[in-house]
Amino acid sequence: NVTMKDFFKFLGGSLFSNNNVLKGKKRKFYQSLIVVILSLIIAIIPVFVYTMRVNGSQAITKTDNSSLDVSLTLFSKYLYENEDVGLTTDAEGHFVATGFKEVSFTSGEKHLLTVRVVEPSEDLTAVAQVYRDGIDENGKATETPKSFMLIQDTTIGLYTFGKGATNTLNEDGTIKTNASFTSSYVYAASAFKNQDFASFYKDELNGDQYCIDQWKNALNKMYTPYKTSNVLYSISIYSCINVLIILTMSLIIMILTRLKSSQCEKMSYLQALNCVNYASFSTSIIAMCLGFLISAFAPVAFILCIGIRCVFLGFKASRSPEQ
Fold it and tell me: Which residues, in sequence order, are bridge partners of residue 97?
């Protein structure tokens, strides 16, 4: 098909040539719309991949996890050795805690983890802040926050602090700045029904490793519902930001062609948008590569790449062809 051949030839030329991109203002809008949709998908691939790689068990495997593997093993051992306490999930996706309200685990004088059952009527956020503030027996905030697990009906919140985590206090003893979490995860019972957490522990050789493996498996499964929503949320947010950048750059290019200093034909907004849509294709490929090379760069790679290209494209669009 001659038309398709011409389109792909033009698209290939627009990868590097701003002159070619500017010719796109005369092409049909639906063609550039297809290109920009493809570009947005390509640009978001690194974010999608990195978000999908996040697993619930990373709370354990993360470096400096405040001995969470030891803490969870001690918790399962506590459930296993005491017949009057228990933690299970039922067939409807609810956590069922019996025989305890709060229990803390230590290693010598070091606090490892506090497990607290939060009633449905309680404010989970407020309870979490108490542990983050390191509230002592006198009800005062301290410089030492506590790693904690909160169990409430259908969810578990697991929050840990690394070595040296310190709250900053005001002169009157109130919290000025909270220490940052080493990890903070929320888990759902709906993805781990009819399970008994006491069964994770086995009083035998390599029992501790078995227990840790069971917790990793459980945390991965219970994190799945939140993982899916986090992926959708991340993709939606970054895609919307990328669309806004494209729309903004189109507006800037249109304005540049309408300045008194401009020596070329004025562009309408739709023509400028056409050009930026085509320019986005090569920048999305570059952004994807940069996102995989430097993970921290993935969310903003497309924004920076399209911004840089549109700066040059704008200058080109506002100059006469002779220049």
Answer: 87
Q: How many CB atoms lie within 10 A of CB 222?
A: 26
pLDDT for 280 equals 94
Which tens digit of pLDDT belongs to each residue from 33-50? Answer: 999 999 999 999 999 999
Burial class of 4 by CB neighbour count within 10 A (0 to 12, 13 to 18, 19+):
exposed
How do beta strands 110-117 and 102-107 pair? antiparallel
pLDDT, position 261 = 73
Find, among 268, 265, 272, 267, the residue nearest to 248 by Cα: 272
* Per-residue confidence (pLDDT) for residue 84, from 0 to 100: 93
Name the E strands within the chain: 86-89, 95-98, 102-107, 110-117, 148-152, 155-160, 168-169, 175-177, 183-188, 195-196
Read off φ and ψ for residue 148, nearest 5 degrees: -150, 155
In angstroms, the CA 302 to CA 42 distance is: 10
Closest Cα partner for 310 from 242, 263, 209?
Answer: 242
Q: What is the mean pLDDT of the chain?
A: 88
Provide CB contacts within 8 A for 118, sequence distance 6+.
124, 127, 150, 151, 152
Residue 64 — pLDDT band, cuts 50, 70, 90?
low
Whole-angstrom distance, CA of residue 296 vs CA of residue 104? 36
Q: Are 122 and 153 in contact (CB under 8 A)?
A: no
Strand partners, 168: 177
Residue-wise pLDDT for 232-244, tens only, equals: 999 999 999 999 9
Measured CA to CA, the distance from residue 6 to residue 64 in angstroms comes to: 57
Measured distance CA(32)–CA(36) in Å, rounded = 6
Query: Between residues 165 and 116, which one has the greater pLDDT?
Result: 116
HSE-up (13 A, CA, CB side) for residue 51:
21
